[in-house]
Amino acid sequence: MTPTTNASAPSGIVLNIQRYCSHDGPGIRTNVFLKGCSLRCKWCGNPESIAFKPELSYDPRKCTGKKACGVCLKAPFPEGGFYVVEGADDTIHVNWDLAGDCDEALASLCPTGALEMFGKRMTADEVLAEVEKDASIYRSTGGGITLSGGECLLQPDFSAALLKGAHERGMNTAIETACNVPWKFLEQVLPHVDTMLHDHKLTNTERHKKWTGVGNERVLANFKKAYETFPDIDFVARTPLIPGINADEEHIRAVLAFIRPHKNVIDYELLPYHRFGLGKYLSLGVVYELDDYKTPSDDLVKHLQAIIDEAFGRTGGTR
Ligand code: SF4
To answer: What CATH class is the domain 11-50+123-311?
Structure first.
């Protein structure tokens, strides 16, 4: 299941490296998104991060069509992987079952960038060289590197090597995780972590299974064990807030009851649901199932935030 590694030169599948981030740990940070996830959250805003391997994407807005180009309709592209509908215009369609095996070399033949790969293999040294470009900003803001995904803990050798290397270079380290992984992966990575941002998606296990594909027993057991085993880590709980799924007082209060006994859980953040990932579903030929769900209103977010602030002793609008 894990695509890593070789102990002497750890490498992994990286989706994206994003500089100048300010929401995923202290200071200004570089977020490194790793590919591969063990959940299938129906609201996922990064569907291109779910598969472990690099995968093809197609953006019809960049495609100039059969008459102007048509490169993907011929060999060496897989026969039938790309097609036009006879009698219609020359718009290119994708048969994902046949085109899914295209690799970087094939995608690079597309002259407009309509065909691209999501993700590539990189070594830890290559990633750290990129992250280190902003070392002076980290020093002045207390920032550093944040590993995200996908689920970064599913590439434990690679993640541990990245975070250890970042510490050796004087950077703050953070991970963003849903913790649906074997405990031994946490045990391997957490010694190199300063801040762990972790998702409390749903507290009821049946509902967790309905909306993410798995129950939450292992997730909650991992959270609790992590709080107790690593007292020096700053833990920040988070909830992606989706009206009709978990944007209610019952869930927020259940999460607070779970985290507040643990003093190293220093905050609980709400991440209002958005639909920015819709275009990526289209590019991958994947159906988006949450079409009828709306973003939460400002009033609802403020109401739930006030409950959290009160629980953390911040009543009076100190946030
Ligand atoms: S190679 Fe790219 S631009 Fe050309 S027809 Fe195919 S998808 Fe469109």
So the answer is: alpha beta
* 44 Cα–ligand 1 center, Å: 28
Nearest residue to 269 (alpha-carbon basis) of 319, 222, 231, 211: 319
The residue whose CA is least distant from atom 2 of ligand 1 is: 110
Q: Can you point out the beta strands (E) in 67-177? A: 82-83, 93-94, 115-118, 120-123, 144-148, 172-177
Strand partners, 14: 34, 120
Instruction: Check pocket membership of 114 for ligand 1, CB cut-off 6 A.
Output: yes
Q: Whose CA is nearest to atom 3 of ligand 1?
A: 63
Task: Point out which residues pair with 58 in neighbouring strands.
Answer: 115
Q: How far is the CA of 14 from the centre of ligand 1 (A)?
A: 25
Index of the ligand 1 atom closest to the CA of residue 71: 1
Whose Cα sits closest to atom 6 in ligand 1? Answer: 72
pTM score, whole prediction:
0.88
Pick one of 1.10.540, 3.30.420, 3.30.565, 3.30.70 as the CATH number of 55-118.
3.30.70
Residue 315's CB: how many other CB atoms inside 10 A?
Answer: 10
Q: What is the pLDDT of residues 47-88, one digit of tens each?
A: 889 999 999 999 999 999 999 999 999 999 999 999 998 878
Q: Where are the domains of the chain?
A: 11-50+123-311, 55-118
**Which atom of ligand 1 is found nearest the CA of 69?**
4
At 230-246, the pLDDT tens digits run 999 999 999 999 999 99
